[in-house]
């Protein structure tokens, strides 16, 4: 249970604020009152205020390098999926098929017909291919459904394929439901995955509550006070669960609404930003294409080694997208579009331009989510159209290997953070959790250094500074949801969302120091929500 205090003093810390685009120390203590930053100054002055008002005092004198920053915001994660990934069978990081099967076996789920769910397998790390028969050997009776790490493919056993009507029924081609001589292989991709999900029993409310609680607890332990949640089909459940958590530590959630619900949202009069301090309507979430890992991102040129495969797009036409974007914008709804391939990004920008929308109302922005492959002229179009780039630097942890394998000649604008910044595009950083850990320090390290242990940086010309990466987790994403000047910075009068780190990361010139930094405390709306 959270301990609420009207007044809290944080002392013996470096207090860092973004002033004129540069991070500077403005004091060594901060005083919080009723969820607002009331005073930034010296420890002596703030301690005197705390004493006169009987305030809670958080003293970090035992950690001489303790530093306060604005609490992090994850601009793109899947809160529901992430929570369940913490409860399901988890195959993250497993480097062999045999190891994955052993991890599934050790999870000890009974073979009694109950659904068995799991997450984060990655066949890019395996020398053997997954097949339904391997799961059948473990579970001949219970349906098994395992999400690939990019959440654009599933691995199912025979019981699951039959349960979701993908065994004999063939509504999809062999690209989305591959088959061999014995029937479906058990791999199900993209649109066929959506078909499968629609036939899997929904979790009970108590199960969803447990998953949400796990996700929020982990996020708070990593210094997050806000997130944009892309699981757009769980708004009703969140409306019930978030108020029920009023006595527990919470984060501020901006919840996406699915594009299929745009007309309903407009008819109900919903607007982006409607809601409470801890649950607000976010953007309309649309999809333009697939993913890198599944080779379904929509590309200008065919995927190397796969002539004729350009990936695929999910929209009827650019005109159709433009109509949807225009309707959302005219009715006060932001647009958040998943686009990974260079052609998907180009045509999404075409649709924004055709719709005649630029910077959204209320100083917020429409966004393209991921924007992994771009052409140079399209980088400039982001800036000209006022579209923010909501990107996930931690994806580089695994994607560096994929990029080197798939593109013998590097794609010139993959993860083009420096190019986007140089053109004046707002970068909003996130994790896409559970695809990657929602670890802001890991994200900052990959944005600034673009390297894995023992390797040279990947396209080092796209590295950005630690200062800029910190801004992309704090000031910029709050601006993207219309809260510039209210939240996302440590300035008197702003909302008291704060992370305390074990050291000042701004001078780091190598990733190991960044990654070894600890989160000492997270404060949300002036309340201590996590303490190490």
UniProtKB/TrEMBL annotation:
Organism: Candidatus Cryosericum odellii
PANTHER family listed in its UniProt record: IMIDAZOLONEPROPIONASE (PTHR22642), PROTEIN LONG AFTER FAR-RED 3 (PTHR22642:SF2)
Pfam families, sorted: Amidohydro_3
Ranges where the Amidohydrolase domain occurs: 67-527
A GO molecular function held by the record: hydrolase activity, acting on carbon-nitrogen (but not peptide) bonds
Keywords: Hydrolase
Superkingdom, taxonomy of origin: Bacteria
Presence of the UniProt keyword Hydrolase in the record: yes
SUPFAM superfamilies: Metallo-dependent hydrolases
Protein name: Amidohydrolase
């Amino acid at each position: 249970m959270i301990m609420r205090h009207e007044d809290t003093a944080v002392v013996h810390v470096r207090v860092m604020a973004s002033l004129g685009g540069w991070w500077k120390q403005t004091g060594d203590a901060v005083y919080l009152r009723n969820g607002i930053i009331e005073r930034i100054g010296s420890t002596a002055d703030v301690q005197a205020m705390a004493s006169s008002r009987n305030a809670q005092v958080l003293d970090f004198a035992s950690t001489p390098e303790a530093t306060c920053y604005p609490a992090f915001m994850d601009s793109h994660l899947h809160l529901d999926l992430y929570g369940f990934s913490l409860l399901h069978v988890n195959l993250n990081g497993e480097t062999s098929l045999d190891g994955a099967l052993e991890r599934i076996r050790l999870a000890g789920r009974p073979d009694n017909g109950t659904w068995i769910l799991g997450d984060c397998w990655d066949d890019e790390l395996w020398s053997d291919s997954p097949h339904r028969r391997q799961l059948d050997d473990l579970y001949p009776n219970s349906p098994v459904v395992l999400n690939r790490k990019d959440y654009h493919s599933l691995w199912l056993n025979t019981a699951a394929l039959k349960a979701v009507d993908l065994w004999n029924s063939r509504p999809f081609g062999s690209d989305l439901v591959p088959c061999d001589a014995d029937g479906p292989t058990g791999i199900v991709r993209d649109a066929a995955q959506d078909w499968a999900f629609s036939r899997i029993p929904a979790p009970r409310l108590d199960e969803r509550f447990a998953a949400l609680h796990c996700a929020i607890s982990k996020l708070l332990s990593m210094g997050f006070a806000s997130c944009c949640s892309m699981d757009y089909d769980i708004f009703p459940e969140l409306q019930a669960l978030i108020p029920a958590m009023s006595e527990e530590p919470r984060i501020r959630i901006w919840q996406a609404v699915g594009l299929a619900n745009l007309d309903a949202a407009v008819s109900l009069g919903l607007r982006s930003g409607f809601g409470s301090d801890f649950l607000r309507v976010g953007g309309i979430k649309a999809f333009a294409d697939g993913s890198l890992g599944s080779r379904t991102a929509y590309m200008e040129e065919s995927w190397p080694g796969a002539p004729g495969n350009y990936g695929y797009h999910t929209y009827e036409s650019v005109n159709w997208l433009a109509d949807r974007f225009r309707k959302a914008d005219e009715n006060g709804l932001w647009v958040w579009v998943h686009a990974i391939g260079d052609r998907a990004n180009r045509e999404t920008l075409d649709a924004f331009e055709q719709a005649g929308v630029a910077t959204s109302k209320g100083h917020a922005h429409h966004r393209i989510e991921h924007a992994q492959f771009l052409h140079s002229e399209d980088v400039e179009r982001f800036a000209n159209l006022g579209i923010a780039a909501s990107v996930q630097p931690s994806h580089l942890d695994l994607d560096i290997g994929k990029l080197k394998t798939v593109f013998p000649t590097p794609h010139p604008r993959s993860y083009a953070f420096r190019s986007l910044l140089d053109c004046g595009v707002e970068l909003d950083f996130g994790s896409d959790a559970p695809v990657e850990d929602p670890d802001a320090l890991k994200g900052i390290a990959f944005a600034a250094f673009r390297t894995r242990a023992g390797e040279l940086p990947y396209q080092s010309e796209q590295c950005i500074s630690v200062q800029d990466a910190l801004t992309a987790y704090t000031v910029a994403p709050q601006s993207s949801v219309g809260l510039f000047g209210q939240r996302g910075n440590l300035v008197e009068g702003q909302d008291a969302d704060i992370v305390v780190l074990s050291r000042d990361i701004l001078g780091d010139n190598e990733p190991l120091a960044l990654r070894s930094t600890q989160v000492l405390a997270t404060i949300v709306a002036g309340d201590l929500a996590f303490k190490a």
